[in-house]
Specification:
6-stranded mixed beta sheet, alpha/beta, 4-stranded antiparallel beta sheet
Length: about 425
């Protein structure tokens, strides 16, 4: 699949292109969106006055709370035009419903096709999907539709069950896997236990979802290095969310996820909602383009990222997003240190003894943040506890509480009945 022409144009051309798309979006929202009609009227906004990307700042942000409380008002079409309903994972609150029309499903397929192509997938490849396609999950549906549009083969296995995954790998010879990267370690362990030669499989790469595999400088993190040491396959990071119906995939240069300018406008703002300087991390704000059912204007994702705007070796001139550093709501203030959960995950991946883990954030009687980490290991010991604590002190200047549990106990926490993906973090803090 060819790179969309607009992604190869100059930054000035891309900006002008997006401003024309924005004009059509505002006209569409003014005519069809009860929610944005009310916002425009309430803030006395003339949509015709929004002519540039900079003018977007005249419009208030849309938040997850807005989507939850006024969900029906975001709908721009009649219910009979809705083909599919999806919901967010609800990691930071109640799940939000997003309704898609037939045109939205076409857009979703196009988005994933060009995203897969960005990561080197062609019609000659076969993709094994290690993620659910049911349970109102957009990502699994997007991967299926995108692979189909691209013309690639698809093996729909679903999540978990290493035995079934390996049966499918050995039977159907997929070249790409789409999976949570930590699950690759379970596949590696299963292969070792059952004399499967990793170097002789058909798999050449994995699209890694749900967990970071890179540091801020784009180097592989500990989790990714542990995978690569055992299984020499290419690892591609991807970032997406249900609300934006758009993915940011790495190309072969592995220098951040490429933005698709025909599908989305991005902004990055600081804690005071002011645009950050180039090279500074902040909260990602998105405006969807080409969405028919529930378009979003200046939606605050809650994800902390850094944008990169220098040209890429692949020829694309689109902005790229670096690894997600964390979610704004999950920021931890621990005795003068500010950090995000991915930093905790990275330290834990240093210890090969840890089979699985879950992190609990809570507040003590003084209303300060505390960190408790429940881990499963084959041989619990005081020495291992101290080793883990010392490593946290050295790397992050924090001292978590360590609690040993069985793998079954942790899995029951990490896989709630209604969850579609593993939960690594339980946050019971009062954010207010």
């Amino acid at each position: 699949m060819k790179i969309p022409t607009i992604e190869l144009r100059s930054r000035a051309d891309i900006k002008a292109f997006q401003e024309e798309k924005l004009k059509h979006l505002l006209e569409y929202l003014f005519a069809n969106s009860p929610y944005y009609q009310r916002i425009f009227k309430q803030h006395q906004i003339e949509v015709s006055s929004i002519r540039s990307l900079e003018d977007l700042r005249k419009i208030p942000f849309t938040t997850k709370d807005d989507l939850q409380h006024y969900n029906e008002e975001f709908l721009c079409v009649s219910h009979k035009e809705i083909i599919d309903y999806v919901t967010t994972s609800g990691t930071l609150g109640e799940p939000v419903t997003v309704a898609l029309t037939d045109a939205d499903l076409d857009r979703l397929a196009y988005n994933e096709a060009i995203s897969f192509a960005c990561s080197g997938i062609t019609a000659n490849d076969t993709i094994q999907l290690m993620t659910t396609i049911d349970r109102r999950f957009m990502a699994g549906l997007a991967y299926f539709l995108g692979a189909r549009k691209l013309g690639a083969g698809i093996v729909r296995v679903g999540s978990g069950v290493p035995e079934l995954q390996w049966d499918s790998i050995l039977k159907f010879n997929p070249t790409y896997l789409v999976c949570v990267p930590s699950f690759l370690l379970k596949l590696i362990d299963y292969a070792k236990q059952h004399d499967i030669s990793l170097s002789e499989t058909s798999v050449k790469a994995a699209i890694c979802i749900g967990e970071p595999i890179r540091e801020a400088d784009f180097g592989l993190n500990l989790l990714a290095n542990n995978i690569k040491e055992a299984w020499d396959i290419e690892l591609y990071a991807t970032y997406a969310s249900t609300e934006m119906s758009t993915a940011f995939n790495e190309c072969a240069s592995h220098r951040g996820g490429h933005q698709h300018p025909e599908l989305i406008i991005t902004e990055i703002v600081d804690e005071n909602d002011v645009p950050v300087e180039e090279g500074v991390a902040g909260e990602l704000v998105i405006t969807t383009l080409g969405v028919e059912g529930m378009p979003l204007l200046r939606f605050k994702t809650g994800d902390i990222v850094e944008a990169h705007t220098d040209g890429c070796e692949c020829g694309r001139n689109t902005p790229r997003l670096g690894p997600v550093l964390g979610r704004k709501q999950q920021m931890i203030k621990y005795k003068g240190t500010t950090l995000y959960p991915p930093a905790l995950y990275n330290v834990l991946h240093h210890f090969t003894e840890i089979e699985t883990f879950v992190i609990e954030l809570f507040q003590n009687e003084l209303n300060t943040d505390e960190i408790r980490i429940k881990i499963a290991v084959e041989q619990p010991s005081e020495a291992l506890t101290q080793k883990i604590i010392d490593h946290f002190r050295a790397k992050l200047r924090v001292r978590p509480t360590i609690a040993f549990c069985t793998a079954a106990e942790i899995d029951s926490i990490r896989q709630p009945a209604m969850s579609r993906k593993p939960v690594w973090l339980i946050d019971t803090r009062n954010k207010h």
